[in-house]
Design goal:
The complex is a heterodimer of chains A (271) and B (177). By secondary structure, chain A is of the alpha/beta class. Helices cover 39% and strands 23% of the residues of chain A. Chain A has 2 domains: 91 residues, Dihydrodipicolinate Reductase, domain 2 (2-Layer Sandwich); 127 residues, 60s Ribosomal Protein L30, Chain: A (2-Layer Sandwich). Chain B has one domain: Alpha-Beta Barrel (fumarase). Classes of the chains: A alpha/beta (271), B alpha/beta (177).
């Protein structure tokens, strides 16, 4: 059941942009001119071709990130969970003619089937299993960073760290980007918050007012950088900033920025 | 829009200006990180290369597998900056230029200027569109690298923007400094 679900989600995710991403790209295309507008129109035309012909939107069909919310009332029977997830990924990447992009970091030998997937499991209250599939391209992943700020740096330090990550990335992560931000937690959990933020719809506001105001201020300062679509210059350097927050240590203020290219692919199912 | 067919003459390259949109047709060779390392090993060992560098264009890309009835699967550009360390030497050995996405280093810009080369930006993320513009594809080296192998592509009307021209002007100058 998990394997089939991951298979379906992976296959769908590789060939379609999310609706909120398409809407944001259309809005952006209307306000840009010249090479920036040309880039956005090409991206939208590509999206239509991919949907029509069931082709991967982008050849970087990504590292398979699977976020699993597992209700504490659920008993999973059968094969090992990670094996079921990898099996779904393996079948989807073969069936969809997706690129297999996973290799050994030292020998660079490809695993040949895009496994292993990166599986994160959260045990929650309830009787459901929510499966979220996020194929993560590395042009943008490479531009991600974590800053271990001091508490004194505070809100301004957070906004500055977000904007600086986008500025340093420049034209490389395929702007207009979506900026996933993690605030708090620890050196390991903070980037995961940033990645989870990327599964939120574009245009959604964080329920906490102080977090939402950081999202807004960071976005407006990012647009002022002028990097623009594909780095060709323009008003749209980012399609959105999405932040998540978690308690941290009294001595620290971790801020992680997980960069996502304009090709936002994310699919979800509740079992 | 300007239509160009590879190989490009020195005059054709000189006439291009950063920011120009072009439709490019002809023969390209794909190569990305691992293929470049292998090419450099061959050069260092004085061994023959899988394709002649003279006037060739390298496309920084790794395609998806081709579905039935197509020459190539989705195949948009990858981030060019990872090839900063490789491009200058290849340009000085006669490479006509490169196609990729995003800014490249000052060393690459200097080599393009010195050799009269051109760096084109393809639109990142438009993999299906570029894949469909590939009319023929053949693996010419390093098949063990799978999508990272060197493929010879015959392409028709690749939509590109001149990113760094042969005079060293860059479309990224407006933003990246």
């Amino acid at each position: 059941m998990i394997s089939d679900c991951v298979f379906r989600l992976a296959l769908r995710a590789g060939t379609r942009l999310t609706d909120d991403c398409c809407a944001a790209l259309r809005t952006a295309a209307e306000r840009e001119t010249g090479a920036a507008r040309y880039a956005l129109c090409t991206i939208l035309e590509n999206r239509a071709i991919a949907a029509r012909e069931s082709m991967p939107v982008c050849q970087d069909t990504g590292m398979a990130v699977v976020l699993l919310e597992l209700g504490n009332g659920v008993v999973l029977e059968g094969e090992l969970l990670s094996r079921a997830v990898d099996d779904g990924v393996r079948r989807a990447y073969a069936e969809g003619n997706f690129r297999k992009s996973i290799c050994d970091p030292l020998t660079r030998v490809n695993t040949g089937d895009n496994t292993p997937a990166h599986l994160h499991v959260d045990i929650v209250e309830g009787d459901h299993v929510r499966v979220t599939y996020l194929p993560k391209g590395f042009g943008s992943e490479n531009m991600s960073r974590i800053s271990m700020l001091t508490p004194a740096e505070g809100r301004e330090g957070i906004v500055r760290a977000i904007v600086e990550a986008v500025r340093l990335a420049g034209s490389r992560p395929c702007p207009p980007v979506v900026v996933g931000v993690g605030i708090g937690g620890s050196f390991d959990s903070c980037p995961l918050l940033a990645k989870k933020a990327l599964t939120r719809p574009l245009g959604s506001r964080h329920p906490r007012e102080d977090v939402a105001s950081i999202e807004e201020e960071a976005l407006s300062r990012i647009q002022a950088l002028g990097i623009g679509p594909q780095g060709f210059g323009g008003k749209t350097t980012a399609l959105g900033v999405l932040a998540e927050i978690a308690p941290t240590h009294i001595a620290g203020l971790p801020v992680a920025v997980n960069m996502q290219c304009h090709c936002v692919r994310c699919e979800q199912e509740v079992l | 829009m300007k239509e160009l067919r590879l190989p490009l003459s020195a005059d054709e390259k000189r006439a291009l200006r950063a920011g120009d949109a072009v439709l490019l047709s002809g023969t390209l060779y794909t190569a990305r990180d691992c293929a470049h390392r292998r090419i450099f090993e061959l050069l260092d060992a004085d061994m023959p290369l899988p394709f002649a560098l003279k006037d060739a264009f390298i496309y920084y890309a790794g395609p998806c597998p081709a579905p039935a009835g197509k020459a190539s699967g989705s195949c948009g550009p990858t981030t060019s900056a990872r090839m900063n360390a490789f491009a200058p030497r290849l340009l000085r050995l006669g490479l006509g230029g490169m196609i990729g996405k995003g800014e490249m280093s000052e060393e690459v810009r200097a080599a393009l200027k010195e050799c009269g080369g051109v760096y084109f930006a393809a639109i990142g993320g438009a993999g299906a569109l570029y894949g469909n513009a590939v009319k023929r594809s053949e693996c010419v080296a390093f098949p063990d690298l799978l999508s990272e192998a060197v493929y010879r592509f015959e392409v028709e009307n690749f939509p590109l923007v001149v990113a760094i021209d042969s005079a060293g002007n860059s479309i990224y100058d407006r933003t990246s400094k």
